[in-house]
Amino acid sequence: MTYPDFFDLVPAITLYDPLAEFLGAADGGLLEYRYVDAVRLAGHSCPTVAAAYTLTRRALLALYPEGYPERGAVRVSFREDALSGVTGVMAAVATLLTGATADTGFKGLAGRFDRRQLLSFGQAMAAEIRFARLDTGALVEASADLRRVPASPEMGPLMQKCLAGDAAAHETAEFRRLWQERVRAVLLDHGEDDEVFRLRWV
Torsions phi, psi of 30, nearest 5? Predict the structure, then answer.
């Protein structure tokens, strides 16, 4: 897979997954996830995928200030309905990193490692997403304000030409460059920007 170089500059996150350890899938149960994994899951790279990856990564690191965040041990709640806007895409990325699912995840073994009923939608909250540790009950809410990372004014007209099939080859290339440049800005220029990615303890 060939992809933009900046994907490899985005901070990764290492998680401890007790199920992976139990079944011998990863030494010590340690799994590393990178932005490119979220891209493979979604099938594309966009500001929404970038925001979901960054919000989830930052929330997990906040919930587990010492040691590795535990995959399968965090409840994830969304304010919006699952079919609303980009919520489904964001939830898929959150599931990738946390293991949380509504009812389609791993059912567990002898009462352990159950990943179901850890993902919910349409919950009353001010933020976009809430992350909660199952063991301590610690809660952090997270939201992204991507308006603070505006797209190039040239991108909209170029997108319309591409969608209409009227774009020349150089215009298609420029649209793609500008699109990924905004993604790069979200991830690298603003990945630690608390005005773009807002976390709040509840």
Answer: -90, 125
